């Protein structure tokens, strides 16, 4: 059965934020503590500035404390590491996020490694990656976590189950592809990770009951790569130029050819308003989780 249900990530993210706001309000009333997220941005990258602004607004909107530390791109790596060290030791700070990409003279691996794993709300620290790999409680990267939430919801709405399904993930980055594979393995899926050296990619994709595209190429996954009845999660965010009667315009598209794929898929995330809105909502989720774990409080159900 393939009926191209559209997975509404924007609506799901809104509901998630409402649930998180309630948890924050309950925790604050019970313990007099407010979770605090600090976002550090180095330099003036325009896209990063927009993301950081949005993170701050959404953090405050659910009742958490948000601090943004803006540093010039002349900041040295040693100065940034010193700041991270201070934030690690500040007990009022529950989550630390250093916005990527960093200026070229800094090693993002080194900076991420310097963040305390317990405050690493991006879930990029090697300790959190290791915890996920061995199935221990930890902080999971936001985009794959949000993707899994949407997938689980779509599967449940179809009275279906994840266990035993063949999931194909196109992309093997540390922030999306690999953690997504671990999450689906933990859900008892049979997981294939495809990448730029994969042979016969179209055939591999056609085997998928669950197809996750995290490639970074506009409309790369073709409609006829999607098996009838598959669940399709499109993580891609690509800005392209299109011609309109009013002249060239820019448009955001995913890594899947949505119009062609939706006729095959049982359920599919659109771009925009699919996985995208889940990323910041999951950052708030992770901040709340980090706060609970740091204060030895039970992590609320679903967080
Ligand atoms: P990366 O560039 O780090 O990884 C891309 C992956 O795709 C690599 O593993 C690469 O393979 C693989 N790939 C590239 N070309 C091909 C090809 N021709 N055939 C098969 N595989 C290929 O990207 P990210 O994981 O960071 O991001 C992926 C997408 O998700 C992007 O569009 C990005 O904008 C989006 N994104 C969206 C987020 C959100 O909030 N929704 C957050 C993060 C990312 P190889 O390893 O062999 O090079």
Quick tags:
Rossmann fold; globular; three-stranded parallel sheet; binds NADPH dihydro-nicotinamide-adenine-dinucleotide phosphate; six-stranded parallel sheet; alpha/beta; 303 residues; 2 domains; 10 helices; 18% strand; single chain
Structure in words:
- Helix content is 41%, strand content 18%.
- It is α/β, with parallel strands linked by helices.
- The strands form three sheets. Strands 1-11-8-7-5-6 form a six-stranded parallel β-sheet. It has a three-stranded parallel β-sheet with strand order 3-2-4, sandwiched between helices. A two-stranded antiparallel sheet has the order 9-10.
- It binds NADPH dihydro-nicotinamide-adenine-dinucleotide phosphate.
In terms of per-residue confidence, which ranges show pLDDT below 50 for 5 or more consecutive residues? none
Rg is 20 Å
Separate helix tally: 10
Q: Considering the protein shown, what is the CATH homologous superfamily of the largest domain?
A: NAD(P)-binding Rossmann-like Domain
What is the average of the pLDDT values?
A: 97
Question: Given the C-alpha coordinates, what overall shape results?
Answer: globular
Beta strand count: 11
- Which class do the helix and strand fractions yield? alpha/beta
Structure in a nutshell:
The protein is α/β, with parallel strands linked by helices.
